[in-house]
Amino acid sequence: MKTIIATFAATAITISSFGQGFKLSVSEDxxxxxxxxxxxxxxxILIKQKLSFGEFNSSVVKRSWTKGxxxxxxxxxxIPGKSDHTNIISVEYVNxxxxxxxxxxxxxxxxxxxxxxxxFKSKDLELGNPNNIVNIAMNLLGxxxxxxxxxxxxxxxxxxxxxxxxxINNQAAQAQPNKYTGLLAQDKDNYYTIAPVTxxxxxxxxxxxxxxxxxxxxxxxxxxxxxxxxxxxDNGMVFIGHGDxxxxxxxxxxxxxxxxxxxxxx
Length: 266
Hints:
The chain is of the alpha+beta class and 266 residues long.
């Protein structure tokens, strides 16, 4: 984790050296119809930290979570080793303070619960459930492996019992950003691929390479169309397409989880 944070810090310095007026360069699909939000609350020590961008606001972010501690949907009843992975990240990772928990709201009717774990071992999800993120990734992308540099996230939006799961291999995303693909999925039929973004764009529209590795991530639907992106440089910025409210909310949760990854203590 420290290596990843140091990389993003170096990236921020590199971009600052170009001067003002730069932002993450997103795909043309997303440029055509999207909202751009500056992020508030990302920087600083994680004490009563709240994240906000656009209409989306988080609860106070917590470094860890425990069984039965969910506030909206009564979750947290899963048992490691069973097909329900709800609590798979609560046993080893909470004790090591490698987890983060927050709620997100759109200020209206949509609310969520989000659980994340840093330095997550992919083997901890290889339990035979066809809907775990490792198996879905193997089926959809043909990728897998035994990495221990994963960031694993569960997102509950209240639309069904099966959570959305996100898996990012930080080491691969930094080492081979042009080849790596992460995944946000509920099952093999409902998913988004996640591509590292390595370019910035000037106010004039000119796109530039920074040679600083991954600057953020872009979410693409099952048809390959970019629908959201998140910049992890400095305070952060979120780009969300003009989709329906439920999709926008899901993607906002995923972006928030990525923005908070560096807040997890080791």
